[in-house]
């Protein structure tokens, strides 16, 4: 490892070389160190270490957790500015964790992490193992020589398996490639480089607007962006940096004022959760330095100022690549007033300073009508925030043959601030089979009806349909939003569900039978957190209509009830209902 790294580990540097930020740079540019940033990640790591020491022998930890715990301890041990620098009390815990990394490794070089003998899951751990080895090797202490030998053995054993094994998901390709890039950097093997090029030759799964195929901020932040940056740096592939730049540009428009990242359009598990922007810290720093984009500086500095999340995990990256700690370019305002339309995922983000909204019509449900990991099936089609008052979801469910929630088949822009969502559901009644398809034994093919399966040879039967067409027009108006619901087709009941985040106060609504359930039957209700408020209404009658998640969920006892304070408005089709949401 270059002397620059050894010097940096002592904590004595005041400048860093920036050449590695652009793999093709002919010579390094010298820049001042951002001392505030270094202090932040140093202190964050210092706080992590006692927690690790208190539970490092947890036998239920996955190998990925074992590797991350070791990374936290090693970062403090080698870093000259850490209060744990060369602290002998860390050696035994580090040694135990390193031994676990070796003991849990199969003879084929892979680990079990839920999936058995898994190349991608092993790659997550091996990236940290490579970092452990590199940091300890640069530190060069005799006390860690046996640990380094063990880590080297783990890496050399895993490398061929990663270079020959397969993956499950799009992001796994980049995780495996990044692990191979690290292994090749430490212990060169042409098989590793060839496999990286094989995966890269498939093309990076990003739309022109910068959204990866999984549409997940979780995987963009934790896997794809960091891995592409690692490959770009270690394999001299500067073109990869532009994919990360474009994804971070999208992220600017998905950010909420409190540091959360909108995940409504995701095809992965975060489509129903919350992701925080702290995961992106070193990505925003690196791209700010590389592109000189002051907006990225603003977001990086906002993460640092907020100080939440496991920021100590970034210390290892900074020790490996000191250039990440350089003083950032001058900050420029990040976008806070916009209407941003993403046709590739049929979504819209609107922000007016501390007020944001999301409109979403891009589920995969109309092309692939199943519920599965890797598909976008989130029935939330609208979200709204007014400061601390957060409406986490608006959903609609008609009582229509147990077909479930309204999920829009796309999104159409009607004007600068108006968007239409629509869905048509057709449910068949099946007529007798034509004579040429009838069987005397009555044993017909097991086929899908659209909601269920039966030995009825549904595909050959003529049908009579019952139809329900729903349109929701979302319009930004003065002081909030109008959601106009239009229903055509059969007569039935429906419920609109507004789910507010727990922690606020509801008024103007009636409590229902279950905790967290309320109904607005008339007039206007409100949800208040401190001085922030969202008003909603009017109510449309007292009839209680349950939300029906659909037979795909109820058959197995599933649920789509979101966490929070749920307010229901009801009505009947056909007809129209206007829901006004005001600040």
TrEMBL record:
Keywords: Signal. It comes from Kribbella sindirgiensis. This is Alginate lyase domain-containing protein. Residues 1-28 form the signal peptide. It comes from the Bacteria. The keyword Hydrolase does not apply.
